[in-house]
Write a structure and sequence with these properties.
26% strand, six-stranded mixed β-sheet, Alpha-Beta Plaits, 16 strands, homodimer, Ribosomal Protein S5, domain 2
């Protein structure tokens, strides 16, 4: 018996960040978060359940992968198999449209695509909510790559109550996210490990306690397309997460000189009237956000900075979607 | 009637930072702090009370100064005059041994020297504690430049209970502070204004609530000359202050690309066995601390960095001290 499906999903950029869990195993987050899916980047994943396989196999960007990455994929497949009451192993082939090593986290799009493809291959008829819950258990932010456009992940308190929904579709606001890759990158601590350190910072509880205020401001700014309000809360929220990171034990530092150059430049450009703001995930690269109307001016200024390697342009992306599977042998 | 005295004081570098007040007018701080006086840098101040003057006058590094700076000096002189039950105006001449515009805050050494010179000129016989209290009302951190060596400022709750005392003399530990001036400095918000913003950060209350733990760790590490423990708590405390700054409304950003370069370099050197750590005040320059035994190795590495302008070397300094006044006409 062979049953196959393929799906794709976009990564997302969080405007209100996810950092730290109530429950590490289930990835129930300490606070809710809001993000935008990133059109222009995607992970495409084929899941082929095959009774002739003696264990799950993972081929990532053409290369067989084992160890922790495979175990994490198998754990998500286990949840899907459990729902289908099945034990068949699967071959998973996954490709990112963006080169690895660019500092763009692929786990959100990867686990969203894996979940949709895996559930479809086994003919499970899951709602968006159920897919978001399942994707969350593989990678927290993957829950936000299931729905389309601008997405809010409600923290919830258990597996059932922790999932993401769309606040507005991708056509709601023509925001642009320039992902600016900075030079001189060091190795960084992965976010799964990082989430577990959040509670060691004297600041995490205060960051979490303040989250509802930020979520409300951000949600309202998105719905009203109010860029100045969005800019202020997005930057504050990014700084709150990095504050927790830099005061954890051990501390986590993700910023490089180039990161700081972009932060200061973006703030100066905004003071001079440009609609632009920044947000930074668990890495040195900077996401520079602006409305479409200011995109060309922002791009021009970005290219004049000293410490940048390259710039990727993304716009609001849709939900995870099914693809025609290419059937192929192992 | 003319009565004159002259005094000098060192600036200090805080290991546990002062940021935010319980009482802005009296500069009663939100939390206690610990610092080291910086031998190698000093402010020298002469105060000459002169009944022929029609108002206070301030000459700073040879230039007459008016406006806010003069008003702040007059406010400290008023407190001294009140204690002496006198209303005579004064000519204040103050010189820094370090060039202004280097990003080294001079208000701590300036108000410590002003307080000691002013009180001495009026023959007030004040204890170190009273001098520290008085200096504090001019500039909070000036309270720490009155006693010698390694100093703790007890937050207290009112004017009487908020003052600094020496934990250990300058000879206790041969720590070195390399003040590394980074290039590309922007204008920054002064610390008096900054302190008033501290409460607007969602993180300030948590930072303050955690202060006793940090003070105890730092005090103990200093007394035991335990550099690894000192390094960890000093860097965490510096990051806590900058976390509050960067999440205030409006946010305060003091770091430049060169700041980030030094932070990352210092951490890497320490991982490779060097005893070294960093701390950063309300500006982009980095104070790089190490025991004397590691000073040459640290200096060599610092000079190899890309974004630095110059390096000043300081060692633990003594208390504020009296000078022979040079009597001169206005």
């Amino acid at each position: 018996m062979i049953s196959t499906a393929a799906a794709a999903a976009h990564p997302n950029i969080a405007f209100i960040k996810y950092w730290g869990n109530q429950d590490d195993a289930l990835r129930i987050p300490a606070n809710g978060s809001i993000s935008m899916n990133l059109d222009g980047l995607e992970t495409r994943t084929t899941v082929q359940f095959d009774t002739s396989l003696e264990g799950d196999r993972l081929i990532l960007n053409g290369e067989p992968v084992q160890g922790d990455a495979l175990a994490r994929v198998s754990a998500t497949l286990d949840r899907i198999r459990q729902l289908a009451d099945l034990q068949t192993s699967a071959l998973v082939r996954s490709e990112n449209s963006f080169p690895t090593g660019t500092g763009i986290a692929s786990s959100a799009s990867a686990f969203a695509a894996l979940t949709l493809a895996g559930a479809t291959a086994l003919d499970l008829c899951l709602s968006e909510r159920e897919l978001s819950q399942l994707a969350r258990t593989g990678s927290g932010s993957a829950s936000r790559s299931i729905p389309g456009g601008f997405v809010e992940w409600q923290a919830g308190t258990d597996h059932e109550s922790s999932f993401a929904t769309s606040i507005a579709g991708p056509e709601h606001w023509d925001l642009v996210d320039y992902i600016v890759l900075v030079s001189g990158q060091h190795k960084v601590v992965g976010s799964t490990q990082g989430h577990q350190l959040a509670g060691t910072s004297p600041l995490q509880a205060a960051r979490v306690a303040d989250a509802d205020r930020r979520l409300e401001l951000c949600r309202k700014a998105l719905l009203e397309r109010d860029f100045p309000v969005l800019a202020e809360i997005v930057e504050q929220d990014s700084n709150l997460m990095h504050s927790v990171m830099m005061t954890s034990r051990p501390p986590l530092y993700y910023w490089e000189p180039g990161t700081m150059e972009i932060i200061n430049a973006v703030r100066e450009w905004r003071e001079h009237g440009l609609q632009v703001c920044f947000t930074i995930d668990a890495g040195p690269n900077v996401h520079v956000l602006c409305p479409g109307s200011d995109a060309e001016a922002v791009k021009r200024r970005l290219t004049s900075l000293a410490n940048i390697k390259s710039i990727l342009k993304c716009t609001p992306g849709g939900p995870a979607w099914l693809l025609e599977p290419e059937i192929s042998g192992v």
